[in-house]
Write a structure and sequence with these properties.
The complex is a heterodimer of chains A (274) and B (263). Chain A contains 12 helices and no strands. Chain A is mainly alpha-helical. Chain A starts with a helix and ends in a 7-residue tail after the last helix. The model of chain A has no long low-confidence stretch (mean pLDDT 83). Chain B is built from 12 helices and 2 strands. Chain B has a two-stranded antiparallel sheet with strand order 1-2. In chain B, helix 1 packs across helix 6, helix 4 packs across helix 5 and helix 4 packs parallel to helix 7. Classes of the chains: A mainly alpha (274), B mainly alpha (263). The interface between A and B is large, with 35 and 39 residues.
């Protein structure tokens, strides 16, 4: 027990140090910081403007009004931002495999997956977080949500679960590189699909797709099910106050699954040439 | 000219090498296209005609937009960034051909490969799963093709101009994203501008982005009449000329003072 705590303390210390280094590296290229500060919020202004204009032209999307869509969008963006901060490396795993970058991690006395994600922690993700929180608060106001401790707990639990689900999916996709030996950058596409399935209610898709998004690739749990249960919109499947906790459970399961798949892949890893 | 054709040829062969990339891309683009189709179907449920366009035309719009997006993939900005970061830009410039000509030829080669690897499969999948994207009026075909060529050039020049920022900023990853999002929202590639408030879409009509996606797509689905299309293509040509001018100006300035990392 004491040993485990000691190890945890060690990991914590390393994490702090790594975050400090991440801050130092990002200020190396000042024009780059300015660029991310513009580009990331811009991306969500684009997305939110889309929803606003579309809803103005059409009225509603599948029974979701403008305020409810803003709430959903906010949750989606916040969980996206959190997953960007901690798990964005999963997108680039292919390059690490091809270039033999895992050699470095394998020789150090820390978990490989931990090092892979945390030595490259992406502080810039904060630039996604801010527009997400703004849209979320706006959505809360528009929906006239009654904010109390129980509501906050549900939101936080749901966000942790959603971030883990997203992270798990990135790791699962990234780990395929161990088998394909190919550095495919799926990041852009993954994000596009995630955007389409977490920022809008998935009830607008046919039942077969809903089934896939609920049971096979649990993207529906990132935002649609917990938000619709929080706002009391019927989704015909998972209603009730405990749905956010279900999201957390699914997130943890996804992470365990992804970790196992990554480990299995790492066994096949044989570094780069010579 | 022969030199550039050679670059095109090698790039086609290069792009053909990675099989897995191709299947992955087709799969992902199919998913994106189909989700957009359902998005519009859900919006149009119970509504006949919104913003002067019906659901059927909108589905055609989505499919053709997916096809066009293959043509508008450019690598020039990353290519410039890489050659500045690695310092190869100096040797590129010593060669007896214009480096930007080479980048253009590479992009052309890449796109020729993608037409067979991505565009045709996506067209077939779109026809099978969504609908056959029939043109509203086949007589507009020459107009459509011409506007696509102009769109391609505008898009390439915008990318090249963003890429040239790398000569001073070195790292332009973020700026490439800015460009991507600007084009996504303002070009009508996802949401046509006629769903925007009138004032907003009027202002955006003055920018070059609209003429990348929305103009050829409007011609394709037959939104607006011929006179309107011709006038918009006039503005498109003016933008092309302006961008060419800026490109040549910046090109002359950067090539005079190249900063190479590490000497």
């Amino acid at each position: 027990m004491k040993k485990a705590l000691c190890e945890l303390g060690h990991y914590f210390e390393v994490t702090m140090h790594v975050i400090k280094m991440a801050f130092l590296t990002i200020i190396e290229y000042p024009s780059n910081i300015a660029g991310w500060l513009i580009s990331n919020p811009l991306q969500f202004i684009v997305g939110f403007a889309t929803i606003k204009f579309v809803v103005e032209a059409f009225g509603e999307i599948n029974g979701w009004n403008y305020g409810q869509l803003a709430f959903l969008y906010g949750i989606s963006v916040i969980s996206h931002a959190l997953s960007m901060i901690f798990f964005v490396q999963g997108w680039f795993m292919g390059y690490f495999v091809i270039e033999g970058e895992f050699d470095r991690y394998l020789t150090r006395p820390l978990g490989v997956l931990y090092q892979f994600f945390f030595t490259n922690i992406n502080i810039f993700g904060i630039t996604d977080l801010i527009p997400g929180i703004l849209v979320f608060v706006y959505g809360c106001v528009k929906c006239q949500v009654h904010v109390n401790a129980w509501f906050l707990l549900q939101v936080i639990v749901m966000l942790i679960g959603a971030t883990l689900i997203r992270g798990g999916i990135y790791i699962l996709i990234g780990s395929t590189s161990f088998h394909t030996r190919n550095a495919v950058d799926f990041g852009q596409y993954t994000q596009e699909i995630m955007d389409k399935t977490t920022m809008y209610p998935i009830s607008m898709y046919p039942e077969s797709i809903q089934f896939i998004l609920t049971f096979l690739i649990p993207i529906g749990w990132v935002s649609f099910y917990p938000v619709s249960s929080l706002l009391g919109i019927g989704n015909g499947f998972a209603n009730g106050l405990l749905v956010p906790f279900l999201t957390l459970l699914i997130g943890i399961l996804m992470m365990l699954l992804a970790g196992a798949y990554f480990k299995a892949g790492l066994k096949k890893y044989e570094s780069a040439g010579n | 000219m022969k030199k550039y054709l050679y670059v095109v040829k090698t790039q086609i062969i290069k792009s053909m090498t990675y099989e897995f990339n191709v299947y992955g891309n087709i799969l992902m683009q199919t998913i994106i296209m189909i989700t957009s189709a359902f998005f519009w179907k859900a919006l149009y449920a119970g509504q006949g005609n919104v913003g002067g366009v019906d659901a059927d035309s909108m589905l055609t719009y989505i499919i053709v937009s997916s096809l066009l997006s293959v043509l508008f993939l450019t690598n020039v900005e990353r290519r410039i960034q890489l050659s500045v970061q690695k310092g190869t830009v100096a040797t590129d410039m010593m060669k007896p051909i214009n480096p930007f000509g080479v980048y253009f030829a590479e992009d052309i080669g890449n796109i020729i490969a993608l037409v067979f690897q991505n565009m045709l499969p996506i067209l077939i999948i779109g026809c099978l799963l969504i609908k056959v994207p029939k043109m509203a009026d086949i007589r507009d075909l020459p107009l459509f093709l011409l506007s696509v060529v102009l769109s391609f050039l505008i898009n390439w020049l915008i990318s090249a101009l963003f890429g040239m920022i790398a000569f001073t900023a070195v790292n332009i990853d973020a700026l490439i994203q800015v460009k991507k999002h600007l084009i996504r929202l303002l070009s009508g590639s996802i949401i046509p501008l006629w769903f925007f408030p009138p004032a907003v879409s009027k202002v955006l009509g003055a920018f070059p982005f609209v003429y990348i996606y929305q103009l050829p797509l409007s011609i394709y689905i037959g939104k607006g009449d011929c006179a309107e299309h011709l006038m918009q293509m006039g503005i498109q040509s003016i933008w092309l000329a302006i961008l060419c001018g800026i490109f040549l100006f910046v090109h002359n300035r950067v090539t005079k003072k190249v900063m190479v990392q590490g000497g």
